[in-house]
Amino acid sequence: MSDVPNDPSRRRFLLTTSAVAATAAATGLPACSSDPPPGPIDAGAVSDFTVGRVRVSPLETSIFVGRDAAGGFYAYTRRCTHMGCTIPAPSANSSLCPCHNSTYDSNGDVTRMADGFANQMPLRHFVVTFTGSGATARVIVDTSMTQVDRSNRVAPPA
Ligand code: FES
């Protein structure tokens, strides 16, 4: 006799989740991403980031670091606010989530919601600071602190 309760709803849940996992594996759907580890993260040297571009941090692949046209820095998560898939770096000011077709601009603002979704939040911004100065300056992203003003940009130390 089995110790597992013969609960039809539990069995249905297990069968459904197994089928979803098998389908995702068979179709090559991208895995859901996880949030970055909480706390200050060394995202790379200031010189790793090009003015006017957004890229994935070379040291923490769960975050984007952007540098605006004036050289100011900002950072935000790669985790889609729909169901958590990993978003690629923007190209021509747009990132397409590979799971359900939502799009974000280079500031992480939603430009198209996921299929069938009506209330999608923008990507979470984090507080950016620096260590060092000049050629040795490094970008520090504190993933435990939300940057509420999404237009905030931080100039690197001279
Ligand atoms: S997880 Fe990104 S659109 Fe659904």
SSE map:
Elements lengths: L7 H20 L12 E6 L7 E4 L6 E5 L5 E5 L17 E2 L6 E2 L5 E3 L12 E7 L6 E9 L12
Antiparallel strand pairs: 1-9, 2-3, 3-4, 4-8, 5-6, 6-7, 8-9
The structure holds FE2/S2 (inorganic) cluster.
FE2/S2 (inorganic) cluster binds next to loops.
Word description of this protein:
The structure is a single chain. The chain is of the alpha+beta class and 158 residues long. The protein has a domain at 40-146: Rieske Iron-sulfur Protein, CATH 2.102.10.10. The chain is 13% helix and 27% strand. Strands 1-9-8-4-3-2 form a 6-stranded antiparallel β-sheet, with no helix packed on it. The longest helix is centred in the N-terminal third of the chain and has 20 residues, at 8-27. Bound molecules: FE2/S2 (inorganic) cluster.
- Largest sheet descriptor: 6 strands, antiparallel
The total count of strands amounts to 9
What's the CATH H-level superfamily name of the domain at 40-146?
Answer: Rieske [2Fe-2S] iron-sulphur domain
- Mean of residue pLDDT? 86
CATH architecture of the domain at 40-146: 3-layer Sandwich
